[in-house]
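Following the same procedure, sequence and fold were stored together, as reproduced here:

>
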Amino acid sequence: MGLLCLTLTALLQACSLSDLDELSSADGGAGSCAADRETCAGKCVDTQSDAKHCGDCATECAAPSGGTPVCVSGQCDFTCGSATRCGATCVDPDQDPLHCGDCGKTCPTPIGGSAACSGGVCGISCEWGWLDCDGTCSDTQSDPAHCGQCDQPCTGGLFCNAGQCSTECSPGKTNCSGACVDLDSSVQHCGACGTQCQGSSGGQAKCVSGACALDCGSGLTQCGNACADLKSSVLHCGACGNACVAPGGASAVCTQSGCDFVCDSGLMKCGTACVNTQTNPSHCGGCGSTCAGGQTCEGGVCKSSCSGTMCGGSCVNTGNNTSHCGGCGNSCSAPANASPSCAGGTCGFTCNAPYAKCGSSCVNTNVSVTDCGSCGNACGGPANSTPFCANGSCGYTCGSGTTACQSLCCTSSQKCCSVGICVCGSCACPI
């Protein structure tokens, strides 16, 4: 008897509760799982918290790259750990040029370089041979506004040739508005003067034999005119052009296993659909829990009668149901970056963080040039500039080939005077 007790004690110390559940089930002894668990593939699991069996045995939760799938109260979701959740993705806003400092704040890609994000602030990374001159990447070998070095313009009708102001271009080079360039390799004049090659997030523009191309960074693949991470891109998941599609009430995600989806708040993933287990008689209270004929599903419980309104076999409250708001079939919609709402039988919408409601749209006032800091506050700038919005404040950058001159942007044929005006290259500045 003593030996038996010692053996049983050792088994209890060596086995976890789930192991004992599995053993008892397989043994046919006490057999069944505890009341709050279900038998899934021979194991007793809590379908309210198990991400591999969420809501039922067949539903495994998914997560985007950098995220961890979780199951909360039988509904799939995901967490991003130390990263930040932006929609259906996990990002690092300190260094992600697509979400720099905030969700949706995309850093512009300059000609001759790539977008960069450091400490949540947008910047640029100029390719080899180019210099950062006043926030733009300049080819100082041919740029007449920065010939040889930043802020060294060629004047008096001179051209910039091999980093020197000259009266003519070297053989094999073409004069394009004062820049002596090779049309076979110049990203600003590719194949012909004025034909600029555009880069993309994660990729630098190139000109090869007079045709524009992309040079994608490490871990990225060129898909058409974009550079994509095939492990996380919902437009190019696993392969270029393989776009992930989500069912109604869900957001598509791309995982290392392939395309998947995450259901919106209040909906549960049941197979290939997202359903409201509070009202759906085929999934009442949980996936696959079907109400008997003649019964309705109300509050996740099968009932013989409906205290609300019957709509398409579901018992709903038309006062707050977004699929039947104010009446059966009146489905509420929402603009991008928002979730539909229904209150008192009237449709509306709620903007997802960090977006704000501006009229009938949801905008990120931290980065929107039309609603910067507040709705209707549009950013502007002088001629030859591009306005931007950063952290809710307006600003602007002077265009390629131009020079910042206090509140103006001078072209390559002009020079900046200390009083803050642009004059022709051979003109004298006012005293």
In short: The radius of gyration is 31 Å. Residues 346-398 form one domain.
